[in-house]
Design goal:
42% of the residues lie in helices and 18% in strands. The protein is an alpha/beta fold and 243 residues long. It has one domain (8-235): Rossmann fold (3-Layer(aba) Sandwich). It has a seven-stranded parallel beta sheet with strand order 3-2-1-4-5-6-7, sandwiched between helices.
């Protein structure tokens, strides 16, 4: 039996990379999937690629109004939301000496504000027993120059997950975090061989994660197989943070 059959899912930031892999897996496991992205062409391509009961919506994850509009569309189409994945994220390097207000604000707008107001927008639609997964990173507990601002946003995500898990538990809503390590997405195609080798070197399993492996972890936390798990962080990092 499909693990999320007849469920309604929304993947914010689902048009490419890890988000697209999650949307694809949820669709294969029986869910009706709505996915968002900022660029219309990427959203259309993703929905066309996945086919079936997948619908693409153009939205800026940093815009509360866009997120409210997306949830209104989900409610109009399905009446409720069972599974929510807040995946949209930004990761750009900057040392403290090179830090700018724009760099700081852009990261917190997408990585933190987007999750806060994404969940707020979704609350009226979430069914009893709904499951929420926030996309974190193993950077939340590591010092990774020059990605200090990115790491700080992911530490905020981890903290919010704990508080939200406690706050929403009376309604049976679970909130968890998936924290990937280096993952072999299209974004990595621009990284040099030396850069890739440096990323892989600290990983005990000797390679990057595949997007579908992160999707599998996300599916587990969303599904009833994780019905007694909330407030947790599941690392998908080949042992990088763990060993």
């Amino acid at each position: 039996m499909a693990r999320v059959e007849n469920k309604t899912a929304l993947v914010v930031g689902g048009a490419k990379g890890i988000g697209l892999a999650i949307a694809e897996r949820l669709a294969r496991e029986g869910a009706t999937v709505f996915l968002t992205g900022r660029r219309a062409d990427e959203v259309e391509d993703a929905a066309r690629k996945l086919g079936g009961d997948v619908r693409g919506l153009v939205a800026d994850a940093a815009s509360p109004k866009d997120l409210e509009r997306v949830v209104a569309d989900v409610i109009k189409a399905r009446g409720h939301l069972d599974l929510l994945v807040l995946n949209a994220g930004l990761s750009e390097p900057a040392s403290i000496a090179d830090q700018t207000l724009e760099h700081f604000d852009r990261h917190f707008a997408v990585n933190v504000r987007g999750m806060v107001f994404g969940l707020k927008a979704a609350l009226p639609a979430l069914s009893e027993g709904a499951s929420v997964v926030l996309m974190g990173s193993i950077a939340d507990t590591m010092g990774i120059p020059p990605y200090s601002t990115y790491a700080a946003t992911k530490a905020a995500v981890r903290s919010y997950a704990r508080s939200w898990a406690a706050e929403l538990a009376p309604g049976g809503i679970r909130v968890n975090v998936v924290a990937p390590g280096p993952t072999d997405t299209d974004m990595m195609a621009a990284v040099s061989e030396d850069g890739r080798a440096a990323l892989i070197a600290p990983i005990p399993l000797g390679r990057m994660a595949r997007p579908e492996e992160v999707a599998s972890a996300t599916l587990f936390l969303l599904s009833d197989e994780a019905s007694f798990i909330t407030g947790a962080e599941l690392c998908v990092d080949g042992g990088m943070q763990q060993v």
